[in-house]
Amino acid sequence: MSSKYVVCLGKGGQRDMAESFARRAGVTLLDKPGEELTVLFDAKGVSLIGYGLSYQGDFEGMLHRVSDGRLAHEMLVRAAKTTQTNVKGIDATAGMGEDAFLLAACGYEMTLYEQNPVVAVLLKDALRRAKKHPKLKDIAARMQLVENNSVDELKSRVDDIDLIYLDPMFPGRQKSGLINKKLQLIQKLEPPCSDEVELFEAAIQAKPSKIIVKRPLKSPFLAGKKPTYELKGKAIRYDCYAL
């Protein structure tokens, strides 16, 4: 595992969770933050701190995107629209779960794959808090996190899947000046090792009804494969493959 971060148990933090994570990460549990990146367990939950910044997963900030009729206008939701019920989806590049949250909000039972241990523990904590929130709990209940390599998980998948979502641009996809400064902390973590073409091929082999790939607007098609259709925004597009 990466040695670029330390683990700290702060006031009110859950010691068993912090000790378990530190053990898996192969680092010593400290009683004060390190000089660079620190995974902090305290009364607020789990945070990533360092370089004068602090980041914690937060689905509450997405409430405005899923209420007051706004959800239907989300480009990803339009791309994933289906007339079926009881649909199952996979977000194979979960990151902090925002896109999976939108898909869960529109009815998908979502499985989220995330292999980076720090991102996974931040996402797990965000989901834990969301499941206690009166306006988020029903959506969060449709989100299940699996901490593992997406390619391995997709290759071993045997049940039917309606949708696989890929955002291979995460986490190092943009120049730091273009993103929220807090997310720069996540970009300092080691990137996932899965090749995006290998990930795409594994998604195809899993035989979902549809694959949606998030791409920068002017970038080439993933693996050179032309989608069935595209939805374009100002900076990104969604390439949709009907299988």
Topology:
Blueprint: E1 5-9, H1 15-25, E2 29-30, E3 37-42, E4 45-50, E5 53-55, H2 63-66, H3 75-80, E6 88-91, H4 98-105, E7 109-113, H5 117-130, H6 137-140, E8 143-146, H7 150-155, E9 163-166, H8 183-187, H9 196-205, E10 210-216, E11 229-232, E12 236-242
Parallel strand pairs: 1-2, 1-3, 6-7, 6-9, 7-8, 9-10
Antiparallel strand pairs: 3-4, 4-5, 10-12, 11-12
Quick structural gist:
The chain is of the alpha/beta class and 243 residues long.
Mass-distribution shape = globular
Head-to-tail CA distance between termini: 37 Å
Treating each run of at least 4 consecutive H or I residues as one helix, how many helices? 9
Number of strands: 12
Task: Please report which band the strand proportion falls in: under 5%, 5-15%, 15-25%, 25-35%, 35-45% or over 45%.
Answer: 15-25%
H/E series:
EHEEEEHHEHEHHEHEHHEEE
Helix content: 25-40%
User: Strand sequence of the main sheet, in spatial order?
Assistant: 8-7-6-9-10-12-11
Structural class: alpha/beta
Average pLDDT, to the nearest integer? 90
Radius of gyration: 18 Å
Q: Please describe the biggest sheet, giving its number of strands, its sense, and whether it closes into a barrel.
A: 7 strands, mixed
The low-pLDDT segments are: 170-178
